[in-house]
Write a structure and sequence with these properties.
heterodimer; A: about 80 residues; mainly alpha; Non-ribosomal Peptide Synthetase Peptidyl Carrier Protein, Chain A; B: Rossmann fold; Luciferase, domain 3; GMP Synthetase, Chain A, domain 3
């Protein structure tokens, strides 16, 4: 989780990612962020996020993203 | 009769296809018939309130009715200026200072944003005025006195001193653009566009004007979908979109995240792109996924109305060859001018000067900046002829096609937006904890990097800048330095810092 928060904080140093639950709904992440985020996650967690998992529900909070990474890791 | 007003597009099309959907966002639609009557209502209302030959601000979301507000403003003989609800307050203030508008049209969703606007303008809710009685006589009087050299919109672009510049464009430039664009790219009545670009730029003219001219249909794609490729492709397929004119980053988002394989768009036949470099790997993915589609690279500055050049991808590119910008639209000339003010020799690099009806009126209430860029044609000393100096360097390749090379100054293209790095620096420097600021662009990672000295933390500076500049201009990284590196002459070492930005992970 720490690693993920670090990636996110790099994108937006002024956002508290531990508590924020509306990363998509509140317009914090934009499309470039999503592309960067996916590249970084694929890289640092050695998973591959398929296109069909790139949906708002999976990107609204750090916790949701972490759950997605763990799910992909188990597969 | 020869066309002198863009409203003639709507007036020719509406009686032919009154019930066809002109604009839609996937939920709400407006037909050509309704678009015409609502536009006339808005126009009649504005005239009844005494607005003429002046700017009217539109604070509305991307929605079919927003086009009726635009056209209504033109019916009143005024020109529209579209603002975005996400624009930071300081930017809105600067735009208001330049325009001094007396009227604002807003929609319900933006009612809470009205507080951001200075209070010296009347505010009208679109829903309250879109069914006003149509005053055909008053509209006719306006039309009679309107010329094709009158402005129809002002679009604000980034300015290097920190103040945005408003580009004013006239009917004739937009007509010229619409006609020659439709001819070159061959849009037709059956074209179904998915619009991506925001309405506060000139970029969406590519869809709006041909839609009015041809009786085509434009879908305004919800912005959030551009973060989620599978959902975006579902949207394209649901609405049988056959034409996209998008910034490269939007196309790359689909291809690089794997959606072309898992859920490809099924109906695309025309794919136009532009405003930034297309990474060749992603370009090839698109070409392979759509072997039957035609691809166009478009190039052009706001100051010359939308796009000025196009390249139809009708040959394979050699390894490492940049995608050409091709040739100008009909009735537009591109001149490549060297440092000596003369045309360069074939194959040599020169600055792009644009000549033609497409050249806009200049920067709104900004004579100084207008005089710098809208200049006498250096190749003509016999009579006055204003041409636009782009600051872009280009050359001709061996196929006789134009190829964009670089900028002469520190303007960049980021996510399809044109940005002056100086404007970002000016914003950073206005923070009292910042002493020096230098902004560079990392072309490879496509990131804006800010180096600064002073006592602010990275989070502080970024949250401060959020109130000043639009989101796409926010630095991705802000790095505090002990001391700014200087060149031998004592200037900021921009090249050195650009190198430094490349090393960042």
């Amino acid at each position: 989780m720490e690693k993920l928060i670090e990636i996110l904080t790099d994108l937006h140093p002024d956002v508290d990612f531990a508590t924020e639950e509306g990363l998509v709904d509140n317009g914090i992440l934009d499309s470039l962020d999503i592309v960067t985020l996916i590249t970084e996650i694929n890289d640092k967690f050695d998973v591959s996020i398929p296109a069909e998992e790139i949906i708002p529900e999976n990107f609204n909070s750090a916790a949701a993203l972490m759950a997605l990474i763990e799910k992909l890791d188990e597969e | 009769m020869y066309q002198t007003n863009i409203l003639e597009y709507l007036e020719n099309t509406a009686p032919k296809y009154p019930d066809k959907v002109a604009f839609s966002d996937g939920v709400d639609n407006i037909t050509f018939g309704d678009l015409q009557s609502r536009s006339k209502s808005v126009g009649s209302f504005l005239l009844s309130k005494g607005y003429r030959r002046e700017s009217v601000v539109v604070l509305m979301n991307k929605h079919p009715d927003t086009i009726a507000a635009f056209m209504g403003i033109i019916y009143a003989g005024c020109f529209y200026v579209c603002l975005d609800s996400e624009m930071p307050p300081r930017r809105i203030d600067m735009i208001f200072e330049s325009l001094k508008p007396r009227a604002v049209i807003y929609d319900k969703k933006n009612a809470r944003n009205l507080a951001k606007l200075p209070d010296n303008a009347e505010k009208y809710l679109y829903d309250d005025i879109c069914e006003s009685p149509i005053d055909q006589l008053a509209l006719g009087e306006v039309r009679e006195r309107q010329l094709d050299t009158d402005p129809i919109y002002v679009v604000f672009t980034s300015g290097s001193t920190g103040v945005p510049k408003g580009v004013a464009a006239a009917h004739r430039s937009v007509i010229d653009y619409t006609e020659t664009l439709c001819e070159a790219v061959q849009f037709d009545h059956d074209t179904v566009y998915a619009n991506q670009t925001p309405l506060y730029f000139d970029a969406p003219l590519k869809e709006i004007m041909p839609t009015l001219k041809l009786g085509a249909t434009t879908y305004f794609v919800p912005k959030q979908l551009f973060m989620f490729p599978t959902k975006l492709c579902d949207y394209l397929n649901e609405h049988r979109i056959n034409t996209v004119c998008w910034v490269v980053s939007a196309l790359v988002m689909i291809s690089s995240l794997g959606a072309l394989e898992s859920n490809p768009p099924k109906y695309l036949t025309k794919i136009c792109f532009g405003s930034e470099v297309f990474p060749i790997k992603e370009y090839k993915r698109w070409r392979e996924a759509f072997p039957e589609a035609t691809f166009f690279n478009l190039y052009g500055p706001t100051e010359a109305t939308g796009m000025s050049c196009y390249w139809r991808a009708d040959r394979e590119l050699a390894e490492g060859e940049p995608i050409p910008i091709g040739k100008p639209f009909r009735n537009t000339e591109i001149m490549l001018i060297g440092e000596d003010g003369r045309e360069v020799k074939t194959g040599e690099a020169g600055e792009i000067y644009i000549r033609g009806t497409c050249v806009t009126l200049g920067y709104y209430r900004n004579k100084e900046k207008t005089d710098e860029a809208f200049v006498q044609n250096p190749l003509c000393d016999a009579y006055p002829e204003i041409v636009y100096r782009t600051g872009d360097l280009a050359r001709y390749n061996e196929h006789g096609e134009l190829v964009f090379m670089t900028r002469k100054d520190s303007q960049i293209k980021h996510m399809g937006h044109r940005i002056e790095l100086g404007e970002i620096e000016a914003a950073a420097l206005s923070f009292d904890k910042i002493l020096q600021a230098c902004c560079v662009y990392n072309d490879e990672q496509k990131k804006i990097v800010l180096f600064y000295t002073g006592g602010a933390t990275e989070a502080e500076i970024i949250s401060y800048m959020r109130t000043l500049v639009p989101r796409y201009m926010l630095p991705a990284t802000a790095i505090c330095l002990e001391k700014m590196p200087l060149t031998a002459n004592g200037k900021l070492d921009r090249k050195g810092m650009k190198e430094k930005a490349k090393e960042l992970k």
